[in-house]
Design goal:
The protein is mainly β and 343 residues long. It is 1% helix and 46% strand. The chain is built from one helix and 27 strands. Strand 26 (319-321) and strand 27 (328-330) form a beta hairpin. The longest helix is centred in the C-terminal third of the chain and has 4 residues, at 295-298.
Length: 343
């Protein structure tokens, strides 16, 4: 599996075009053009961005002058073969209020968020990558899709509300895999009544939330390949009013890449309601923390499955259940015999 290098907008702009339209301002480098539709009124704007310069990075910067600006949609026409199209939306000191949609009209270039700061809602969105985003409210569906210019990725995304929509990082099922490097949800992912899907074909390096209600899988369309490649850190941690529970299924090939010495875990501060499938090998500890474990009451049979694909995986690390003061430790000795993979 190939690694991913984040895109960085290092090219100096050859030309900067800018326009202040009502209360939202747009500027573009390297010949980028744009159209601002304010026909909806009430500080609401629809943007169409055009990047046509080949083999360069075109950066669109969107800023506001009041706290009430809402971007209804951003349509990106990346007609720039060999080039990249970056979006800078708001800033830490002056975040926009909302971005209610991002879509790609033409994907000759690689379209990504360079940085985004919002005080409220984000999504739905379709794009090729996110370097950094901080969202003050909730998020809707986010699709990070394939492009011949690079790998789908989320670098760092902080959500101060709830993540209520599916998150998908697409892959081609061969050599190109989307990676999620850091997702920090200060509220809940999904709800107990409505699980979201988090589909990542490559790595989940660091995913944490106050509560996780999700099916976490790979992105293969069918069969036993629907497993995350590797999970390094996955944690629910009772933030605010969140429960710290993990509900739903977690499917991963391995919880670590062999030989990497790091603190690797899947950890729940609350209870586990669902099943954890390790498709192949368990190389690092699987830690399930709970103040009062309900796993013992409900039983563990069929809840943690190692080598779920039955492809010769190994179990070389312990499964630890409960808080450090009263942990149950299970190793691979004497635990076996389950057949097939989950459908």
């Amino acid at each position: 599996m190939k690694n991913v290098t984040f895109l960085t907008a290092l090219l100096l702009p050859l030309l900067i075009a800018s326009e202040v339209h009502g209360r939202v301002s747009v500027s573009a480098t390297n010949g980028g053009t744009f159209y601002i539709d304010d026909s909806q009124g009430n500080n609401q704007y629809a943007l169409t961005l055009h990047a046509t310069a080949e083999d360069v990075v075109t950066i669109f910067t969107i800023t506001r002058t009041t706290e009430d600006d809402v971007i209804l949609s951003i349509d990106v026409d990346s007609s720039n073969p060999g080039g990249n199209t970056g979006l800078v939306i708001g800033s830490q000191n002056e975040p926009l209020k909302e971005v209610r949609g991002i879509s790609i009209l033409n994907d000759d270039g690689f379209t990504y968020i360079d940085s985004m700061n919002l005080s409220s809602h984000f999504g739905p969105a379709t794009l090729n990558g996110i370097i950094f985003a901080e969202i003050g409210g909730n998020t809707d569906k986010i699709d990070v899709v394939l492009n011949n210019r690079g790998y789908p990725f989320i670098g760092e995304m902080i959500v101060r509300g709830d993540a209520l929509g599916d998150i998908t990082l697409e892959d081609d099922g061969d050599e190109v895999y989307g990676n999620l490097y850091a997702l920090d949800v200060r509220g809940a992912i999904g709800t107990p009544e409505s699980l979201v899907n988090i589909a990542v074909g490559g790595w989940i390096v660091d995913l944490k939330a106050g509560e996780i209600n999700a099916t976490i899988t790979g992105t293969a369309k069918e069969g036993p390949g629907s497993f995350v490649g590797q999970i390094f850190k996955l944690e629910s941690s009772k933030i605010g009013e969140s429960s710290g529970d993990i509900r739903g299924e977690i499917r991963c090939h391995m919880t670590d890449w062999p030989g990497i010495e790091d603190d690797v875990y899947i950890r729940a501060a609350g209870k586990i309601e669902g099943t954890i499938y390790v498709g192949r090998s368990l190389f690092e500890k699987l830690e399930l923390m709970s103040e009062i474990t309900t796993l013992e009451e409900e039983g563990l049979e069929g809840r943690i499955i190692i080598n779920a694909l039955n492809q010769g995986g190994t179990w070389t690390a312990p499964v630890k259940i409960g808080p450090p003061t009263s942990q149950i430790v299970i190793d691979g000795n004497g635990y076996a015999e389950a057949g097939g993979y989950p459908n």
